[in-house]
Design brief:
The complex is a heterotrimer of chains A (269), B (228) and C (494).
Chain A (H helix, E strand, L loop, with lengths): L1 E9 L6 E10 L4 E6 L5 H9 L6 E6 L2 E2 L5 H4 L3 E4 L12 H11 L4 H14 L15 H13 L5 E5 L7 H16 L3 E5 L3 H7 L2 E6 L2 E6 L1 H7 L11 H7 L10 H12 L3
Parallel strand pairs in A: 3-8, 3-9, 6-7, 7-8
Antiparallel strand pairs in A: 1-2, 1-4, 4-5, 9-10
Helix pairs in contact in A: 3-4, 3-5, 4-5, 9-10
Chain B lengths: L6 H17 L3 H17 L7 H20 L4 H24 L2 H10 L5 H30 L8 H32 L17 H24 L2
Chain C lengths: L10 E4 L6 H19 L10 H13 L3 H17 L6 H21 L4 E2 L2 E2 L1 H25 L3 H36 L26 E9 L8 E8 L4 E5 L6 H9 L1 H4 L3 E9 L2 E2 L5 H4 L3 E4 L12 H12 L3 H14 L15 H13 L5 E5 L7 H16 L4 E5 L3 H4 L5 E6 L2 E6 L1 H11 L8 H11 L11 H18 L1
Parallel strand pairs in C: 6-11, 6-12, 9-10, 10-11
Antiparallel strand pairs in C: 1-7, 2-3, 4-5, 4-7, 7-8, 12-13
Helix pairs in contact in C: 1-2, 1-3, 2-3, 2-4, 2-5, 2-6, 3-4, 4-5, 5-6, 10-11, 10-12, 11-12
Classes of the chains: A alpha/beta (269), B mainly alpha (228), C alpha/beta (494).
């Protein structure tokens, strides 16, 4: 269990308040989306969780232990972070070395290290690039290498910062599938995103940050059928809007569900 | 007024004080020169803004004078040496603080006849520094999240440092391709280039030139004849 | 002179260009050197001299002539002085003056002496250049300050040696990865390609359009497979064309051929011809073509090379020799078109990513081109940024009559504005026409169908079940209207 207790945050001495009194718990095996307008503080929340920023007041606790004082390197034992730009987090000459960087810092060597690295590369489907120079690969492949690098550290929680931005349709589907697999393996996936299609289609829980507070913390269907996402700067996913045009306005979490509902309404298929 | 002089005048002034500092050799004369320079800094509003830099220069000069004294130099010579150091470098603070970068480069090309490519490299290099600082920070964060600790002995620090340097350098080498293509597209390197800002000397500048020439002659005369 | 009849028979070959590579590599390396110097770890106040290390690497990699070496090192000295990292500016100028010649000597006259697998040249270069540069600096200091000889010999010179040893270690560390990168991009290889010259051919555009690509086949140097095969495409005035396809299909190459970078900058072998604004691209240099066709490359940050918005706007026009009044007028107009008016004094480093992109667009607009080309402009933007971007581009197309060509994956964002789609795969044009017809072709032929927006794909899936709709699902409103109409019919029947 990872918690933020009464966390407030602002930059510097007299900076504006970014977050006020945030109370959040993250359990095992969730697929949580953290979303909100630009500048709402959603990325700040993940930076507070990983230790890249320290709260101005409040505590961060892991399994009951207060870890507020620990920096990112110390917290990397239980939480990993995949940044938005792949090329800001690649610094080794081959994919294998890149993925191995984290486990190496954890103290793994030799055969144990190789096993962990191979496993992570297979999971993210980048094994065939093992000896290539990461920068020559496509953006989608690079992003999956970054995810493999985090997976190799076997953390309970992994934060992904807008992994699908700038990716094409094919890559988005692969990344979504990978994230679902991660969740099925018991990892808690915390996703900072603007992509409402993924939120509706796959996430088990959505947290919306607005006006420096947690404006919503619940399931996506409740957010999009009863909540006020436009007020918080969020768009409705296409499938939800289409669902509303059907009789009975069923909640459609993705386009496949919409097509199903449509066929039912038309009595076909 | 001191601010409005064109860059070439300020450069000549700065260079002039270096020449005078080298010519004069009595501590008293060098002190008077230093006082004059501090006055210029004060009048152009650069003294208080850069007081830290001025003090650092002073400490450095003092330290050098001390080394000389310990090494067996004569007291008067050491004091003169330290003062000379100060005198030669103080006005750079004035030059850099009151000159806009684009005016400096225009002056370098139009008056000092330095080819435009080099003036360009200077400003372009400075333009990318903030970007690289950002990226440096980003890579350091990514590494921290993969468990790389900040502390450790010197060799660990160097090793950690090396792994930040490499991606920074490789990324900038790829960017250099885009930049090289972009420069060709934008007609860089042509023979006829205009400059937006005019940096030709005006009335006040010519007066300064005259004063500089007179003072230099005076200083040399003073040194040779009157042993300043 | 007879005009050339069959353009597809024309061949043009060229070695890879890049006359400013030495300059851009050196500029960026020096900027890095500056930062490294600021944050370098140190023992007892001694750190390696990162500026010298980086200019050594730049000179060893790009092998500029001695005059250029001198320029690079003077710039290094200027940067040291300007950022107040120097206590004695005159010493810096003199020491880097000497350093330039030493580094240049190593680049041109010293062969890569090998010990085992590695060349020791970078290490030697780093050591010797630092020794010479450092010695010059402290010698001048000694002369000016009158430092006694014994202090000089036993105190200061050993310090110089220490720093030189530091540089001997870091220079190869920086050099070898850079060399690897350069070699993988074939900058170091020499080719036997002779440069063609089409100067005395009369080339006439066969097809109408402001850009006409005619039977273009192109192969990059050192590549066996052509990047584009027999591509023909016409872009009309005021068109909004989206070029799409999987990675490696040739989108960027096609765009580069329109602006002349293929073949002039990238080299290689080109068959066929491209006409931009009536000019054959093999007969016109890229700076001249740039006055008709402006391009925003994917890495738009690297296109911005000055410190303030105003300077950036003036840069291209100054290069071409425009008078200051004309420059001011065009800058203002261009900035207004992208909604960045009045920001001439702003520093580029204070602009956000979206603003920088718009600045790059404005700088291109200052040349008043007819055609705007964008290479994957939305990779670094969030959804709001993407819609703002296309809203701007759509406005430039509709209100200002500009012709727009975009290479894009994100078809959803561009649907409200695009007039035509072109689908490339494996270097060939697979489909071309209205967005709807091309997307149907993608679906039917299973080419790059993942790029089809989810909404339209849903329509295609339902049509496969036998449904028909009176409007295509190209936007949310149209889709909802079409669905409601179909269901309205249903309710009537029941």
């Amino acid at each position: 269990m990872l918690t933020l207790q009464n966390v407030s945050f602002h930059y510097g001495e007299n900076g504006p308040e970014i977050l006020q009194n945030i109370q959040l718990n993250f359990g095992r095996g969730e697929f949580v989306a953290v979303t909100g307008r630009n500048g709402s503080g959603k990325t700040t929340i993940t930076r507070l969780l990983t230790g890249l920023e320290k709260p101005t007041s409040g505590r961060v606790c892991y399994n009951g232990q207060d870890v507020t004082r620990e920096d990112a390197a110390a917290r990397s034992r239980f939480i990993g972070y995949v940044f938005q730009q792949p090329d800001r987090q690649m610094f080794m000459s081959t994919v294998r070395e890149e993925v191995g960087f984290g486990p190496y810092q954890q103290g793994k060597r030799g055969a144990e290290l190789d096993a962990v690295v191979d496993e992570a590369m297979h999971k993210a489907d980048v094994f065939r690039f093992a000896d290539e120079y990461p920068r020559t690969l496509s953006r989608g492949d690079q992003q999956r290498i970054a995810i493999a690098s985090a997976l190799a550290m076997h953390t309970e929680y992994i934060v992904l910062d807008e992994p699908t931005s700038g990716q094409d349709g094919r890559e988005k589907k692969r990344l979504s599938a990978l994230m679902s697999q991660m969740r099925e393996a018991g990892i808690t996936v915390i996703l900072v995103t603007h992509d409402m299609d993924i939120v509706a289609g796959q996430c088990t829980r959505v947290i919306v940050i607005a006006d420096h507070h947690v404006a919503f913390d619940g399931t996506p269907d409740v957010l999009f059928s009863e909540g006020r996402p436009e007020e918080w700067g969020l768009a409705y996913p296409a499938s939800v809007r289409m669902g509303r045009s059907l009789p009975g306005a069923p909640y459609c979490k993705d386009m496949a569900t919409f097509c199903e509902m449509y066929r039912k309404a038309r009595g076909i298929g | 007024m001191m601010k409005q002089l064109v860059p070439i005048t300020k450069i000549l002034l700065t260079g002039g004080t270096a020449v005078w500092a080298l010519v004069l050799h009595r501590p008293l004369s060098l002190v008077i020169l230093m006082a004059a320079e501090l006055l210029i800094l004060l009048v152009s509003g650069q003294l208080l803004k850069n007081i830290k830099a001025v003090l650092m220069l002073g400490i450095f000069a003092f330290f050098l004078g001390l080394i000389e004294y310990i090494g067996g130099g004569e007291k008067e010579e050491c004091v003169a040496a330290a003062l000379r150091m100060m005198d030669m470098t103080l006005l750079f603070i004035y030059l850099l603080g009151t000159t806009r970068l684009q005016d400096l480069t225009a002056s370098m090309v139009q008056q000092m006849k330095i080819p435009y490519e080099y003036a360009f490299m200077f400003t372009a290099g400075l333009r990318f520094i903030p970007d690289f600082i950002e990226e440096n920070k980003a890579v350091a964060e990514a590494q921290a999240c993969r468990g790389l600790a900040m502390e450790g002995n010197f060799f660990k620090k160097v090793h950690r440092y090396m792994s930040i340097v490499r991606p920074l350098m490789l990324r900038s080498l790829s960017r250099s391709e885009t930049m090289a293509l972009s420069l060709e597209l934008r007609g860089f390197g042509g023979a006829h280039r205009t400059f937006m800002d005019s940096v030709s000397p005006k009335g006040a500048d010519y007066i300064c030139f005259l004063l500089l020439a007179l003072i230099t002659a005076g200083v040399i005369y003073g040194r040779v004849i009157l042993n300043f | 002179m007879e005009p050339v009849k069959d353009v597809s028979q024309l061949v043009f070959t060229k070695a890879r260009g890049g006359r400013f590579r030495w300059l851009t590599v050196s500029t960026l390396m020096l900027a890095i050197g500056m930062i490294l110097h600021l944050v370098s770890p140190s023992i007892a106040g001694f750190t390696p001299n990162w500026m010298i290390a980086t200019y050594c690497v730049a000179i060893l990699l790009t092998k500029p002539n001695f005059r250029q070496c001198l320029g690079i090192c003077m710039v290094a000295a200027l940067m040291e002085v300007f950022t107040s990292k120097s206590a004695f500016p005159y010493g810096d100028f003199a020491s880097e003056f000497a350093g330039a010649y030493v580094a240049g000597f190593f680049a041109h006259k010293v062969p890569p002496i090998r010990v085992g697998k590695f060349s020791v040249r970078p290490m030697l270069c780093g050591f010797v250049t630092t020794m010479v540069s450092g010695t010059v600096f402290v010698t001048i200091l000694k002369l000016v300050m009158g430092i006694p000889m014994n202090v000089f010999l036993y105190g200061i010179l050993p310090a110089v040696v220490l720093v030189a040893v530091g540089n001997a270690i870091i220079t190869p560390f920086l050099y070898f990865p850079a060399l690897r990168l350069f070699e993988s991009m074939h900058y170091m290889a020499d080719t036997e390609e002779k440069d063609s010259d089409h100067g005395d051919l009369t080339l006439v555009q066969q097809q109408p359009g402001v850009v006409s690509v005619e039977h273009l086949t192109y192969t990059y140097p050192f590549s066996e497979k052509p990047a584009l095969s027999d591509v023909s495409l016409q872009i009309e005035n005021n068109d909004f064309v989206v070029v799409t396809g999987p990675n490696g299909a040739g989108k960027t190459t096609l765009l580069m051929s329109m602006i002349g970078a293929v073949p002039h900058y990238f080299g290689g072998t080109m068959n066929g011809m491209v006409f931009t604004d009536g000019h054959a691209t093999t007969q016109t240099n890229i700076a001249d073509l740039a006055s008709s066709i402006g391009v925003i490359l994917a890495d738009y940050g690297a296109q911005i090379v000055t410190m303030t918005v105003g300077e950036e706007m003036a840069f291209t026009l100054e290069n071409h020799g425009f008078p200051p009044e004309e420059i001011t007028k065009r800058s203002k107009e261009a900035l207004a078109k992208v909604h960045l008016d009045g920001l001439e004094e702003r520093k580029v480093s204070t602009l956000s990513g979206g603003q920088r992109q718009r600045l790059a667009i404005a700088a291109v607009l200052a040349e008043e081109p007819k055609v705007l080309v964008f290479d994957e402009p939305t990779s670094a933007l969030d959804p709001e940024g993407i819609s703002d971007f296309y809203e701007l581009v759509g406005r430039l197309n509709r209100e200002y009559g500009m012709t727009v060509v975009v290479a894009e994956h994100h078809l959803e964002a561009v649907l409200p504005y695009a007039k035509r789609f072109v689908l490339l795969d494996g270097g060939r044009v697979v489909s071309e026409g209205t967005p709807e017809s091309v997307m149907r072709a993608m679906y039917q032929n299973h080419i790059y169908e993942e790029a089809i927006p989810d909404l339209f794909r849903a329509q295609l899936a339902l049509e496969a079940d036998g449904e028909t709709f009176d409007q295509p699902f190209l936007s949310m409103d149209r889709a909802i209207a079409a669905v409601k109409k179909n269901l309205g019919k249903e309710e009537h029947v029941c």
